[in-house]
Automatic annotation (TrEMBL):
Topology term for the membrane: Multi-pass membrane protein
InterPro entries: ABC/ECF_trnsptr_transmembrane, ECF_CbiQ, ECF_transporter_component
Stated name of the protein: Cobalt ECF transporter T component CbiQ
Residues in the signal sequence: none
Organism encoding this protein: Streptomyces mutomycini
Length: 253
């Protein structure tokens, strides 16, 4: 099972983080995110320490800051949502830069921004140091339902195929003089989306029939068995354990 190619988020390297088994890294990131979400939003200093922990992991993995920052752009919609909260959440009002804003809204915006950014950063670090194929093997090792692993595998494998199909359809439209320029062209774009869905469905049917004809019975063979030593588990657990210590301190201080 596997994607057959490296994804754009992955950065090839031979650091200690790269060398950790994928299921160890998945468990570590999940534990870290759970701890971050459980931290009281009023403990601002705790989120700063979480950022330091992630920066330390990035340094060990030799992932440049610019590489990570570019990929954090994915959370822009959440940032926009958070920036609206001080103006729409009811409650006590205060002045900020000459503008009246809601105190509960400010805390809510901070909560979303801090926890969301740390979660996305941890995920980006995971993707930057782990190949897609290894991630799938890690999920399988963690006993994720096999059907979900297979669905994820097919999504990764055929995502580029569907994207290329959409690109060819776009080229065909432009070669016939079509340029989307307003609401009046939405009908054409909607038909394109419908055609892409039908083509994707038909391709999926053909792939399924080809697999069945080759002996597919609903389960994928395990090509590689990934294992982890106690030392590797201990190294991976360092991030969530340190984060848990910060979280407990945040609840008691």
């Amino acid at each position: 099972m596997g994607a057959g190619h490296a994804h754009k988020l992955y950065r090839h390297g031979h650091s200690p983080v790269h060398d950790l088994p994928p299921h160890c890294k998945l468990a570590a990131v999940l534990g870290f995110v759970v701890v971050v979400v459980s931290t009281p939003r009023e403990a601002v200093w705790a989120f700063a320490l979480y950022g330091v922990l992630l920066a330390g992991v990035a340094a060990v993995a030799r992932i440049p800051a610019g590489f990570l920052l570019k990929r954090l752009v994915i959370e822009v919609p959440f940032v926009a949502f958070a920036l609206l909260m001080p103006f729409v959440v009811p409650g006590e009002q205060t002045e900020l830069l000459g503008v009246s804003v809601s105190v509960p809204g400010l805390w809510g915006a901070w909560n979303v921004l801090a926890k969301g950014t740390l979660g996305v950063a941890a995920s980006v670090l995971l993707a930057s140091t782990t190949e897609l194929r290894s991630l799938l093997l890690g999920l399988q090792r963690l006993r994720l339902p096999p059907l979900l692993v297979q669905i994820a595998s097919f999504m990764i494998r055929y995502g580029d195929v569907i994207t290329d199909e959409l690109r060819r359809m776009s080229v065909a439209r432009r070669s016939r003089g079509f340029e989307a320029g307003g609401v009046r062209h939405w009908g054409v774009l909607a038909k394109t989306a419908g055609a892409l869905f039908i083509r994707s469905y038909e391709r999926g049917e053909r792939v399924h029939l080809a697999m069945v004809s080759r002996g597919y019975t609903g389960t994928m063979p395990v090509i590689d068995e990934v294992t982890a030593s106690r030392t590797q588990w201990a190294h991976a657990a360092a991030l969530p354990v340190l984060a848990l210590a910060v979280c407990l301190l945040g609840w008691t201080v």
